[in-house]
């Protein structure tokens, strides 16, 4: 195990990080710092948020720059205002014993004049968000021709947020001869493009496997129906009473609604999304940071750059549309070596997404079972007991009254006393009412649907079929019981069906070589995440366009319908 001393850092830096309580370097720091200290190196570092990236680039910068000069020598670009402030603050802390260091934080939503003054004071390091940096460049208030080092922090996030052109513009203002250090949690093509275009022979450092998640995060999904998600969220909050969580929703409206409902139901929650003013957002963040709020319900955009170390849970109320965002969401927990849980409330439509995320992360989700009311109550009792164990006795205030109290309770045994006190505490807790998730059929139904394999079949409404008709046709043709088949979507010329894993063979073999009327039937396994899937969905007539009957558009045919009527003797299926 390496220590900071062996990495080659100067003593003022060692002293400062010692003051901050850093004892040993994190993996990304051990891997990156020695190479960067050698100077004249470009680096691409793939590492999750919260793994100590700021020190990984910040400490080498503070070692390499010339602080006798007032020129701007390092430019750090990052996606959000919060991260920008955080990086500048960290750099100031690291350089506590190097008084000549000036750091300017350049971000939107704050007075630009003060920031211009910061630059003019002679900031050797500029930390900026792309939008505000462009503004500075256009106003000719920043000179980037003296920059020797550029750091792109959370490069994938900057691109996700649409800063691609801004980055190109800013980088074109910097000299050709410089070093670029790129940090990113994931490596989408756009990030590769940046590294190819702007970097010379970079050293690639990967902490953990590429795109893999933080080892300290436990990933759990709960199979729930969509209308049960709110009840599931409450149950989770009831169970983990010390929860300190970020709950991710997809839209601003949903974010506000979930937060409002939680507050109305007596939970400690607040909403963070883009419809709030900057001042309101700062207020919410302050309350969350100070733990006055236990659950922060947020959109992806609003929660970017949130850097709080002891978040216990991330809850995906909905899975993100861009699955790479799952990595960013879950990275808000298990920071700085702590453990954390990332929960997905997965509706039946989310099976494919869970599988894709597992592939991206190279980690398996555990399938969780929502706690029952009884389990929650047990947990609450244990919590009370833990509190009793942890409480310190206030002798000053109790001293005078205690003898009287002891006398009053004199005749009660230990067990009775404990039971009475616990009952009293327990009685103060809100009553948990049974709800839809406590209906055993409901839960198992959602899980059952999650378990199934989704298949595409090239039959649909144009074949004169409705859900029932298609179900009957498949059941008859394959001999599989209708109860083992779910018709999940019926479109004009194709449909999606779901079967249990164990019926998959019977279904595909049973359908092989079969026709519906004159039309050969085609069945394929569909992963929602297969690239062609999204295209397929958008098309009006499904994939047969190109593959079926020599590319002719398929229209409903009377004969198909008729032949179904002829061949289906519906009574025979009624088992
Ligand atoms: P970062 O990825 O830079 O946002 O860092 C995440 C958190 O880990 C921050 O709160 C840092 O202060 C903390 N941290 C970074 N490096 C270390 C270290 N070597 N030892 C302990 N904590 C660290």
Question: What's a concise summary of this model?
Answer:
The chain is α/β, with parallel strands linked by helices and 575 residues long.
Entry keywords:
single chain, 575 residues, alpha/beta, Rossmann fold, Alpha-Beta Plaits, 3 domains, 7-stranded parallel beta sheet, 25 helices, flat, disordered C terminus, binds adenosine monophosphate
Structure description:
There is one protein chain. This protein is an alpha/beta fold and 575 residues long. It has 3 domains: 4-206, Rossmann fold; 217-373, Rossmann fold (3-Layer(aba) Sandwich), CATH 3.40.50.300; 451-574, RRM (RNA recognition motif) domain (Alpha-Beta Plaits), CATH 3.30.70.330. Helix content is 43%, strand content 15%. It is built from 25 helices and 20 strands. It has a 7-stranded parallel sheet with strand order 3-4-2-5-6-1-7, with helices on both faces. Strand 12, helix 14 (324-330) and strand 13 (340-346) form a beta-alpha-beta unit. The model is unreliable at 528-575 (pLDDT under 50). It binds adenosine monophosphate. Adenosine monophosphate binds at residues 22, 25-26, 29, 49-55, 307, 309, 335-336. The site of adenosine monophosphate (AMP) has 15 residues, from helix 3.
């Amino acid at each position: 195990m390496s220590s900071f001393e062996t990495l080659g850092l100067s003593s003022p830096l060692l002293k400062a990080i010692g003051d901050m309580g850093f004892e040993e370097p994190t993996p990304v720091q051990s891997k990156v710092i020695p190479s960067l200290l050698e100077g004249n190196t470009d680096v691409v570092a793939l590492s999750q948020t919260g793994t100590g990236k700021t020190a990984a680039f910040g400490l080498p910068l503070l070692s390499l720059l010339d602080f006798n000069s007032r020129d701007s020598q390092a430019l750090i670009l990052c996606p959000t205002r919060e991260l920008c402030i955080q990086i500048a603050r960290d750099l100031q802390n690291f350089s506590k014993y190097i008084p000549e260091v000036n750091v300017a934080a350049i971000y939107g939503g704050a007075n630009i004049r003060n920031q211009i003054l910061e630059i003019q004071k002679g900031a050797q390091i500029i930390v900026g968000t792309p939008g505000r940096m462009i503004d500075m460049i256009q106003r000719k208030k920043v000179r980037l021709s003296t920059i020797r080092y550029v750091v792109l922090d959370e490069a994938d996030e900057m691109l996700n947020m649409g800063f691609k052109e801004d980055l190109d513009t800013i980088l074109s203002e910097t000299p050709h001869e410089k070093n670029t250090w790129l940090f990113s949690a994931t490596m989408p093509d756009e990030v590769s493009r940046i590294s190819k275009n702007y970097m010379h022979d970079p050293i690639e450092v990967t902490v953990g496997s590429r795109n893999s998640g933080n080892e300290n995060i436990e990933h759990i999904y709960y199979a729930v129906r969509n209308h049960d998600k709110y009840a599931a969220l409450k149950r989770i909050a009831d169970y983990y009473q010390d929860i300190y969580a970020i709950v991710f929703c997809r839209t601003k409206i949903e974010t506000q609604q979930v937060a409002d409902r939680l507050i109305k139901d007596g939970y400690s929650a607040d909403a963070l999304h883009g419809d709030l003013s900057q001042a309101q957002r700062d207020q919410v963040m302050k309350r969350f940071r100070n733990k006055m709020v236990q659950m922060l319900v947020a959109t992806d955009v609003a929660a970017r750059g949130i850097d709080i170390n002891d978040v216990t849970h991330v809850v995906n109320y909905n899975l993100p549309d861009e699955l790479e965002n799952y990595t960013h969401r879950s990275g808000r927990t298990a920071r700085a070596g702590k453990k954390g849980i990332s929960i997905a409330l997965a509706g039946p439509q989310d099976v494919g997404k869970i599988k894709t995320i597992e592939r991206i992360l190279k980690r398996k989700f555990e399938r969780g079972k929502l706690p029952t009311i009884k389990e929650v109550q047990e947990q609450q009792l244990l919590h009370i007991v833990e509190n009793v164990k942890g409480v310190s006795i206030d002798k000053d205030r109790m001293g005078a009254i205690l003898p009287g109290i002891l006398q009053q309770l004199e005749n009660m045994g230990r067990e009775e006393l404990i039971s009475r006190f616990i009952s009293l505490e327990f009685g103060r807790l809100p009553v948990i009412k049974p709800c839809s998730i406590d209906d055993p059929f409901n839960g198992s139904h959602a899980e059952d649907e999650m378990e199934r394999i989704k298949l595409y079949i090239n039959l649909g409404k144009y074949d004169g079929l409705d859900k029932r008709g298609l179900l009957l046709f498949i059941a008859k043709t394959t001999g599989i019981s209708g109860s083992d088949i779910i018709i999940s979507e019926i479109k004009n010329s194709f449909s999606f069906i779901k079967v249990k894993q164990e019926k998959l063979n019977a279904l595909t073999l049973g359908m092989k070589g079969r026709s519906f009327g004159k039309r050969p039937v085609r069945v394929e396994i569909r992963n929602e995440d297969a690239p062609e899937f999204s295209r397929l969905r958008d098309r009006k007539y499904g994939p047969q366009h190109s593959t079926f009957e020599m590319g002719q558009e398929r229209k409903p045919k009377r004969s198909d319908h008729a032949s179904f009527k002829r061949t289906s003797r519906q009574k025979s299926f009624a088992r």
